[in-house]
């Protein structure tokens, strides 16, 4: 079966992905039939992040090639044009900000719980000392002084 999928290139922690047409039995980064585009997730500024040869993708899907889920998403994104890319990037950034806010809230809750536990422990310790002092005072009042 022929598939259109991503093949990883680039260096460590700097991915660069090629959209390739390959036999599904071949390895992810192995032999392929044709390169039909690329995706650079770390592109910034004016650098081109996504290029898809739509004609070749249509040809290969016409002859029975299956698109991977990620490639389907990228082809759809490419069809939306630059506005779609900007919109998707903004959505991803908003999602990342929401995740950061959620983590910060969890951390704040953890700190608050620790502070409350320390406060409760200090209060319990103070009550124990007061009870001990009261007991010693009551004990010394009950025993007569030896003359």
CATH superfamily of the domain at 2-80: Ribosomal protein S16
Question: Order of strands side by side in the largest beta sheet?
Answer: 4-3-2-1-5
Judged by helices, strands and strand pairing, the structural class is alpha+beta
Low-confidence stretches: none
Relative helix content: 55-70%
| SSE pattern | EEEEHEH
What is the topology?
Elements: E1 2-11, E2 14-23, E3 34-39, E4 50-52, H1 54-62, E5 66-67, H2 69-142
Parallel strand pairs: 1-5
Antiparallel strand pairs: 1-2, 2-3, 3-4
Give a verbal description of the structure.
There is one protein chain. The protein has helices at 54-62, 69-142, and strands spanning 2-11, 14-23, 34-39, 50-52, 66-67. The protein contains two helices and five strands, in the order ββββαβα. The mean pLDDT is 87. It has a five-stranded mixed sheet with strand order 4-3-2-1-5. By secondary structure, it is an alpha+beta fold. The radius of gyration is 33 Å and the shape is rod-shaped. Strand 1 and strand 2 (14-23) form a beta hairpin. The chain has a domain at 2-80: S16 Ribosomal Protein, Chain: A.
Provide a quick synopsis of the model.
By secondary structure, this protein is an alpha+beta fold. The chain contains two helices and five strands.
Features:
147 residues, alpha+beta, S16 Ribosomal Protein, Chain: A, five-stranded mixed sheet, 5 strands, 56% helix, 21% strand, rod-shaped
